[in-house]
Amino acid sequence: MHEAKNSPGAERVAGPKQALAILLGSSLSIMGAVMVAPVLPKMASELVNSPETAMLLPLVATGPALAIALFAPLAGWLSDRIGRKTLLMLATLIYVIAGVAPALLHSLNEILGSRLIFGLAEAAIMTCCTTLIGDYWKGAQQQRYINLQVVAISLVGSLFFVLGGAAGELSWRAPFYLYLLPLLLLPLMAMTLWEPTRQPAQHQADTQVEMASATAPGVAAPVLSAGLLALIGMIGSFIVPVQTPGLLVHIGVTSTTLIGASAGTGLLATLAGSMLWPLAYRQLGRRLTNSLLLILLAVGLLSLATAHSYAQVLVAVSIHGIGGGLLVPNALAGLLPKLSARARARGVGVFTACLYLGQFASPLLIGALAGPGQQIPAAINMFAYVLIGTAVAWAMLAASRREQATPAQA
């Protein structure tokens, strides 16, 4: 790959510099939660002074996900209006300011407000980065960078989960200062990224495609399919980072370093899953890969719910992480190629909303299933069986459509 000169009539070609900026930008999404979960117990000891505030504390980790779910579709619309690059850089700056704010605040309500603003920035960043992958690359290269996006998120998440846990040994406020690091990304984004442009003929063709497809089930189906998979898959995926710290404390593991390391292990397993995705996609096809990832998530959760030692927890989160690593690339592989240029940002916005709605709903659903007795392991088991049932449904769909295990037919 090389970068074309910015001369009249020359078409720009995205290369490694653009990929680096987009992939590092994408990785900011995982930092939203990974550095917070290990220090929630310490935050509770200082900030929680009533049952009402105890109920609000989990929103420090999950509140940004709600903001992303609500704002991501609007972020897609905004990126069409003010430009992908402009919105991405503005959102990164807001991300830094809102990210570091809890280190300086003393009220739980103020911290929650900053986390919601943080989530708005995350929504714009994730939507713009994924849309730019669709803008800059096509075909096999597009699939490659979709997969590399998950790899980058897993690597950065693993690193910062450990860093956040280690910083949390000093103070629960210390990890929030790590949110200053994305300031280093702004010059890279400014120098390497450009706003995708389209020729008038392309604009007209995309408009015709959108008008023709407004009521076409064949176009709506990929958005619905990818969105539902993202929703249920992310509910299952987010159980580990939210519930594992409490389960570890229950079995006697209280070190934030060990808690952070367990989550980092899960994210490294997610990296392994994303690296295995191309093989699974070629051999099984998209629908059976959906079944596989859901089964892996379920087995990991069932193992986590019955774990009685730190080693067993590490095995459980590793199995679970491999399934999680298959989720996003497999969902996007069936979505991005079917979106027109004009609809791409909005389609990605809807997908991102479903992804993070799953994150937000995860602790609420597990809490509801656990009931007043707070039987968290039993609730995790119940949702694991939901994942198994969904996996069976995907397998039956694959069999009914006689899907061949090739990317062209997946």
Automatic annotation (TrEMBL):
This is MFS-type drug efflux transporter P55. The keyword Transport applies. PROSITE patterns: MFS, SUGAR_TRANSPORT_1. It is a multi-pass membrane protein. Signal peptide: none annotated. The keyword Iron does not apply. Its main location: membrane.
